[in-house]
Amino acid sequence: MAEKEKYKDNRARTWTSIVYPESAPENWKEILDGYHVPWVESPLHDKDINPDGSVKKAHWHVILLFDGKKSYEQVKELTDAINAPIPQKTANTKGLVRYLIHMDNPEKYQYKRDEIVCHSGADVDEYFALSSSSRRAVLREMTEFIKDSEIDNFADFIGFCLEKNELDWFDVAMNHNTLAINKLIDSIYQKHNPKVESSKNGSLDEKVAQVKELRSQGIKLAVIADTIGVSLATVKRYLNK
Prior knowledge:
CATH topology of the largest domain: Replication Protein E1, Chain: A
Domain Replication protein RepB C-terminal: 134-187
Protein name: Rep50
CATH class of the largest domain: Alpha Beta
Shape: elongated
Domain Plasmid replication protein origin binding: 8-125
Number of domains: 3
GO molecular function: DNA binding; DNA strand exchange activity; DNA topoisomerase activity
Strand order of the largest sheet: 4-1-3-2-5
Low-confidence stretches: 1-5
Radius of gyration: 29 Å
Mean pLDDT: 88
Domain Resolvase HTH: 205-241
């Protein structure tokens, strides 16, 4: 048994530690950057709550992402340089990255994803990828929003996603269900801007009837003019007939 323990591999590629503002050097980020190891910095956790209701001491979570396995002693050299508590290895990098903003812990304060900072080439986007079931739920949310808001322009919708930082919506709309979202938005556009087949070749009475029908639906005069293929002044005359 002792022989097995002697050769047990306690190294890992992913390690984590906590950094406290009051004990870390002011340039602690630059110190870590100097080791040229990919690492991830959480938002400052200053709203975490203890079981007794008191606010936890503010801190950052740090994730070190090594290319190869590193021992505790090797990693401690880095954490000692920034006066951080002892490092801990992790086998679940995805869960740890998502914990930086409490993504899977809705009972905890929700920090912003765009406040996660990646250093020295670290990339965490893959850890936030939606599962198939989550993507379907997001698509349903988007569909209901588009219908309720009667959005009839794809660019406007994408602009909304970016402005409101709806990153999951943006990802689904641009990378997964673009065609479905486009068709939904186009159908709303067609509803707002109905096309009247062969309207340009109809008789005067037919055109007058078409204009009045479109106007009764609340369609704007300029849109009616474009649809029928006549001037705005002519549309107004049709409505007076």
